[in-house]
Amino acid sequence: QRQRQLPQVHPCPLQPLARRAVRAGHQVREGVVFITATGALATLSGAKTGRSPRDKRIVKDEAAAQELWWGKGSPNIEMDEHTFLTNRERAVDYLNSLDKVYVNDQFLNWDPENRIKVRIISARAYHSLFMHNMCIRPTEEELESFGTPDFTIYNAGKFPCNRYTHYMTSSTSVDINLGRREMVILGTQYAGEMKKGLFGVMHYLMPKRRILSLHSGCNMGRDGDVALFFGLSGTGKTTLSTDHNRLLIGDDEHCWSDNGVSNIEGGCYAKCIDLSREKEPDIWNAIKFGTVLENVVFDEHTREVDYTDKSVTGKNQ
Q1: What range defines the domain where residue 224 resides?
Q2: pTM reported for the whole predicted model
């Protein structure tokens, strides 16, 4: 879908003509996304087949300097406001050069009192579909009154950052400005950067509301008892949370407030290396039309995915 051009001036928000998430049909026609035997879309993210934590930066403004953990042992790497705006302008200029961009207006957090409005602007259609799946989709009525988002992502990942810009260590840069409520992605097309970037933002916003944000799977028993499953990515949270004897709440990101436990997301994001129907039937059966398979290998004749093939990455998505 064709969109109005992105803003040329920093403070201006995007006002898209069409707000619905766009399927990846454009890129299928362009030959960069393929339909597998189950109807799912398979694509490659390019040179970056996982997240780039060393290229992730947070603007260290006056508020962030006091509120975030910096220094030795901290995962937070600083950048200044000027460098962020330089990268933001580079991303916006690139997006403005395209014939079409893809815009998602969506929510984070199923708790209606504490949900966050997010806008994702991307160059690749499959990124739009990925976030359409991962976030909480508004109704038509909610889209009409969506208004200004609480947080915006400018995903120009097909275009590199200038590695000679201050603070840059490569052609990849994932930048978060908590004061401006914006994220800029340059030089990486790995879709997980958007998902995890927003999760990091929720770790900042939710504690300010006295809400605990959790990297965990979650399900509920028939009597209303809730279980949380903690672990790093790839350690089995999705598998445990999809226990057939319990009701799934979510597989990865949650908020725990006085109202209870709520899923931040609207979709599932599972590792599928060595995936099989017997071991993980729910994940297997979810791989159908509308699903995005990132960095997997499939037979070009049968279009059957080989989940044991680790030639692209040892942690297939």
Answers
A1: 212-306
A2: 0.88
